[in-house]
Amino acid sequence: MRRAIIPAAAALFVSLVPAPAALARPPVKVPVAEGYGGAVATVDLDASKAAISVLRRGGNAMDAAVAAGAVLGVTEPYSSGLAGGGFMVYYDARQRKVFTIDGRETAPRAMTSTSLEGIPFDEGVTSGLSAGVPGTVATWDLALRRFGTMSLGQALQPAIEVASKGFVVDQTFYDQTAANAARFKDISSTAKLYLPNGAPPPVGSVFRNPELADTYRELGRRGPGWLYGGQLGKEIVATVKNPPVTPGSTRNVRPGLMELSDLRAYRALLREPTKISYNGMDVYGMAPPSSGGSTVGEALNILEALPRVGLHEYLEASRLAFADRGKYVGDIPGVPLEELLSDGFAKERACLVGDTALTSPVAPGSPDGSYEPCAEPTGTATPVAQEGPETTHLVVADRWGNVIAYNLTIESTGGNGIVVPGRGVLLNNELTDFTFGPAPGDPNLPGPGKRPRSSMAPTLVFDGGRPVLAAGSPGGSTIITTVLQILVNRYEFGMSLPEALAAPRATQRNTAQTQAEQAFLDKYRAELEAKGHSFALNPEIGAATALEFLGRSRIQAVAEPTRRGGGSAMVVSPGR
């Protein structure tokens, strides 16, 4: 047995929002909960309350996930919303099968491989050009029709209530608004909503979004066609093509390429999940255009091929898997997914892991089905593209054993910064996840109808054919390393799930320096620098949510204790 090296420390719904005073203390979130009958973990108390309300009234995990996701579009609007996209990994207990839904945004048909060339990244973000065709509403619709028990209108009710009554502004919401204030003020509709009186809403104030409440209400009444070809879609296209720039602003806000026909053509897709065997368990993830399942899976395979696992090996496995991600994974035909996740390829890559750190950028391997005991890579390394750090993730389990891990996003914090006038919803900037180019042969160059490569990694772990753990995180390309490190903490280092989430993080993505949180540097820097690792500070990596089945129908839901203001874990019944 391999020896693990353990680190040194290891209206159908009840009211969701009380009538607040003029200034109120943000509600207290509990990061760990244990109990029965179902569980949820999100970054937000209102979203978790919505999911628990659905579960208590007989809804299943998918109903609860959609309801929570819609509430996050209100309370976490800079990370998610109906104009964004995402990925679901769902276990259907009745069918005993894992399904995934690809709700990733798509590029307009008019976009080409050179559409983003020469544009500064920041200017690309705050523009109509960055807005992908939204996938979230199509995801909710497909998910509820295929796996849920509620209508879309019913699932949206908690979000309508929160948007109408408001929520108490916490420090995270204030800080995110303040960080975006300069560009928000240059978009008239965004400034009107998020900079009332010309400034971010203060902590303790109540923030309401009645326009979004009306938008959700109409969406529930009219259905997804209202967006995918109907009036809401027309308004989104008009905003993309003619962004409402504040008069007198000097910001260069480029128009986008989206047409109503792009919305009509959009489909959320059922895809086969990725699957690997790891330490006798099965790990399921999201296939391309997400790189989450392939990269987490490959790194776990590399670790399993090593004689021992410590933090050094964790960083090296991630470095190698990211090299292969950059070369081979994107929304293109012929991604060698089976070979990337094969034991033979993992062993060939694991042979490169020694006692000292590899020098990045490491070249990709050759997942060609012909593997040698120790083959030197011969390909050309691909730099890690910029990705927005925000996104949100939630997990839900119900009393029937259904489980979902769900990432949803609008990309950068605040998306592209453009609120659709009168609708209260921010547009995404997902198309900046494409490689801007020129980069011949890059699998992630933009193209007509193409889905940009994602790092979202909603993950389910099974033991003996039964789900035992669900996890995921926001954080751009650090999502992959966050999920990987949680699994390593839990299954290699023997931490409990709360310990695995709370532990300090480091992220190695085939870059010269490994980014790490201060607590990680304080504990492990000297030990790892002695092995050749070089570090740069990243103040906060990820904001994970997870759950674990403890046996005898007991579930533990876990969110962050402090990152991004801490998360909210809840269970249907704390006791029997």
Automatic annotation (TrEMBL):
Q: Does the keyword Signal apply?
A: yes
Q: Region (Disordered): which ranges?
A: 362-386
Segment forming the signal sequence:
1-24
**Is Transferase given among the entry's keywords?**
yes
Superkingdom of this protein's organism: Bacteria
Q: Which UniProt keywords apply?
A: Hydrolase, Signal, Transferase, Zymogen
> Which family does this protein fall into?
Belongs to the gamma-glutamyltransferase family.
Instruction: Name the chain's protein.
Output: Gamma-glutamyltransferase
Species per Swiss-Prot/TrEMBL record: Nonomuraea composti
Biological classification of the source: Bacteria, Bacillati, Actinomycetota, Actinomycetes, Streptosporangiales
